Amino acid sequence: MTKPLKQIHLAAHFPGVNNTTVWSDPKAGSHIEFSSFAHFAQTAERAKFDFLFLAEGLRLREQGGQIYDLDVVGRPDTFTILTALAAVTERLGLTGTINSTFNEPYEVARQFASLDHLSAGRAAWNVVTSWDAFTGENFRRGGFLPQEERYSRAKEFLATTNELFDSWRGNEILADQATGTFLRDAQAGAFVHQGQHFDIQGRFNVPRSPQGRPVIFQAGDSDEGREFAASSADAIFSRYATLDAGQAFYTDVKDRLAKYGRRPDQLLILPAASFVLGDTDAEAEEIAKEVRRQQVSGATAIKHLEWVWNRDLSSYDPDGPLPDIDPLLGEHTVARGRAQVRMYRDPLATAREWRELAAANNWSIRDLVIENSNRQNFVGSAQTIADTIDNYVQADASDGFILVPHITPSGLDDFADTVVPLLQERGVYRTEYEGTTLRDHLGLETPAGTVS
């Protein structure tokens, strides 16, 4: 019996807080003007994408005590942008990254419930944690939370917000015969939560929203992160670049669901992916090489190496060999406010591995960084990219992709015009939205008690 074709999920990542964007391209636009966000979102909706995704940085990054200005380092407030985008789109999901370490459940629940109302059911929350005291200095509790407790707080934070969302579930409207007015059940919005991180009670003042709760995304790749996603998330980001690695991650995370009483289709696996289109595969390969050289300048390559070495490496030639000295261990003092720093939990092992790669391939520092920092990259003609995306999804290496273009805001335009029609012709991608909410787009159940 032939296995039915899986439907592909696509989303768009507005590329901020990153070194993906090629600023030198004449088509590169602003990361703060609303017209950039509007163009990007409306292109994604024209292509029938599931959602737009915004990352967020809570502090300007530093390198060697100076503001790091080689890539995007910040952006206006997420909720403000997403609320504005709700007014210029109709179906596109609106996903925001909001930190569970430096916020409070009541405030975040109120903001997401409001966004879900204003967008008619299109809100989603990428739940992230923060581990560094440097970022925490911007907040009253700066640096108070030990790294090992960040997922403990995140789990309780999410559970608490769900209690707030659900505090309106099942509350009926009652008619007051004497006054002719309508009143909610006296228990509407009432909540009490006592736990390790939060001790709150009161009354939640935003009624049940169209989705009941926002769709929950999670991006952690550690064992704790995978468990958190399996227990609580609707979708998880993946960073795996090869088919085999993607399949292994997919199987591992999906296999964790059963212990929480969940089915495989209740959690989507959505890797981030960049892409370079050309009229032919050969042309796309040449464009991709130039894009990578533009993304990783010599200065960027040295700064990237400092994230691992925790040393000032400014005297090294980016087109020369890797340092023969070892990384400094202990608290990171060179690069501050960068999530990538925590990816290298064993700097000595990372440095050893990188030296071996560079020696085997005759790579310079810049060559190594270009290869090492390359994301899942679809390079080729529209037909080749459509084939590759479909192959990954049908082979259970993902359920779809979150696309990260290297040009903002017009970087999605060609993909929408050339690749999407090919996927639609295959019957693996929608030609029209069939529902109105983000849960509809993703094939996720709406929590019980939600008023439609």
UniProtKB/TrEMBL annotation:
It comes from the Bacteria. Keywords: Flavoprotein, FMN, Monooxygenase, Oxidoreductase. Gene3D superfamilies: Luciferase-like domain. Residues 24-395 form the Luciferase-like domain. InterPro entries: Diverse_substr_monoxygenases, Luciferase-like_dom, Luciferase-like_sf, NTA_MOA. Pfam families: Bac_luciferase. Belongs to the NtaA/SnaA/DszA monooxygenase family. This is F420-dependent methylene-tetrahydromethanopterinreductase.
